[in-house]
Specification:
The protein is α/β, with parallel strands linked by helices and 422 residues long. It has 2 domains: 3-196 and 336-421, Zn peptidases (Aminopeptidase), CATH 3.40.630.10; 198-272 and 280-333, Alpha-Beta Plaits, CATH 3.30.70. 33% of the residues lie in helices and 24% in strands. The chain contains 10 helices and 16 strands. It has helices spanning 3-9, 12-23, 35-48, 120-140, 164-169, 222-242, 302-319, 343-356, 371-376, 403-421, and strands spanning 52-57, 71-78, 81-91, 110-111, 114-116, 145-153, 180-183, 191-196, 198-207, 259-267, 287-296, 325-333, 336-337, 361-365, 383-385, 400-402. The strands form 4 sheets. A 6-stranded mixed beta sheet has the order 1-2-6-3-7-15. The protein is elongated, with a radius of gyration of 24 Å. The protein binds zinc ion (ZN).
Length: 422
């Protein structure tokens, strides 16, 4: 064991306690609860360890309000001399609890090797591992080059605009300040995540004319028009998307192609208020809306992706009298994939080999995460996701993270710091 390994082994209980403490602060998003509390908690710990700590509220960002302010923490520890800065970025928000839990979602319960709770793997376990890795590195090496940064940022689960995007717009991920970024999302201890597929969300609305439900021939049903759109998507578009394969190493395997989900459909009169006991009223639907969630590949062009949906709508229009529609862009992110020869990728792969004795596996995420902002706004492409936890447990009931997995990931992170900063 190296001195760093000893320092980490001695911090095992500290790592467990830190993970539990972070889980016990319910940073639910939406609406964005307890962001200040979690930043204060981390700030106190890091400031005591000699870090320069900044607390930053993303004033004016989407979702920011006095009731639910978007707080972020950035901490920096300088080495003695000039050199690169290695930045660990974790989001501190967690998604809703949902049904099906057998544990207290905010209890931080531990059983054997597992710590349970909402956010355990996504990604308070990764945040705790990076903090412990940096602290063990600092305790082991009094002199090093460059700097280490740790950030805990808001709103990743809702797009990251009150977190990493806001910080990136203010230069926190500028290449002059930060040279290597590691995002400890739950990709597992022996995998390096290079980036993600692209995403385009759009709302499609079909138009109709309201009439009495007993005389539908006097109206025009927007729901039937939408049915024709869905049939066209089913028969023509899905088979086409399934043929488009990517060279990106996306996991799971099923996401190694173009995909399309219909996130929602609404037509006709609104859902009744809870508690309403009456019957619905008979009307022909005068509008119907769907939200499309199209995930695209680095080999695809966003303009062509959009044109493909328009083609679907135009084909339906050509054969259905009275068919009219609107389409509205909601959200778009281009695919990104860091080069395997990028310094941070090579260094973490070397560290995985040093620590675990295995070859790193390279993966790409099916969905996006905060790397998009670091890449596009920060203009820093030397960025990966690497951290403990199993991706398929994220957002699930009884989410957990493994203690040994966190310790091993922390060893890889610490070894990465040694390789980059000594
Ligand atoms: Zn996450």
């Amino acid at each position: 064991m190296t001195p760093l390994d000893h320092a980490l082994a001695a911090r095992r209980d500290d790592l467990i306690a830190l993970t539990q403490d972070l889980i016990r602060i319910p940073t639910l998003n939406p609406p964005g609860r307890n962001y200040r509390e979690i930043c204060d908690f981390l700030a106190a710990r890091l400031a005591a360890g000699g870090w320069a700590v900044e607390l930053l509220r993303a004033t004016g960002a989407p979702g920011d309000s006095d009731a639910h302010p978007r707080w972020n923490l950035v901490a920096r520890h300088e080495g003695g001399e000039g050199g690169d800065c290695v930045h660990f970025n974790s989001h501190h928000d967690v998604v809703e609890v949902g049904q099906g839990w057998t544990r207290d979602p905010f209890g931080g319960e531990r059983e054997g090797d597992r710590i349970y709770g909402r956010g355990a793997c996504d990604m308070k376990g990764g945040l705790a591992a990076s903090v412990i890795a940096a602290e063990a590195f600092l305790a082991t090496h009094q002199h090093f080059r460059g700097a280490i940064e740790i950030s805990a940022t808001a709103d990743e689960e809702s797009g990251g605009y009150g977190g990493v995007a806001w910080l990136a717009e203010r230069g926190y991920f500028a290449p002059e300040r930060v040279q290597h970024v590691i995002i400890p999302e739950p990709l597992h201890k022996d995998r390096i995540c290079l980036g993600h597929r692209g995403v385009w969300w759009a709302e499609v609305e079909t138009k109709g004319r309201i009439a009495h439900g007993s005389m539908p021939f006097l109206g025009d049903s927007a729901i039937r028009h939408m049915g024709a759109v869905l049939a066209e998507i089913e028969e023509r578009l899905y088979p086409l998307l399934a043929t488009r394969r990517t060279a990106m190493p996306v996991v799971p395997e099923g996401a190694r192609q173009s995909t399309l989900n219909i996130n929602s459909i609404h037509g006709g009169e609104p859902e009744p208020e809870p508690g309403y006991t009456g019957l619905p009223a008979p009307c022909v639907a005068d509008r119907c809306r769907i939200v499309l969630d199209r995930r695209f590949l680095i080999e695809e062009d966003l303009g062509a992706v959009k044109a493909e949906i328009r083609d679907v709508l135009e084909r339906v229009k050509a054969r259905r009298p009275g068919f009219a529609y609107d389409i509205r862009d909601l959200f778009e992110v281009r695919p990104t994939m860091t080069d395997r020869d990028a310094p941070v990728v090579r260094t973490v792969a070397d560290a995985i080999r040093d620590v675990l004795g295995t070859q790193a596996a390279y993966v790409v995420s099916p969905g996006t995460y905060d790397q998009k902002h670091i890449d596009r706004i920060g203009r820093l492409s030397n960025c990966i996701a690497y951290g403990p936890g199993l991706l398929h447990l994220a957002h699930q009931p009884d989410e957990w993270v493994g203690v040994q997995d966190m310790l091993d990931s922390a060893r890889v992170m610490g070894r990465t710091l040694e390789r980059l900063l000594l």
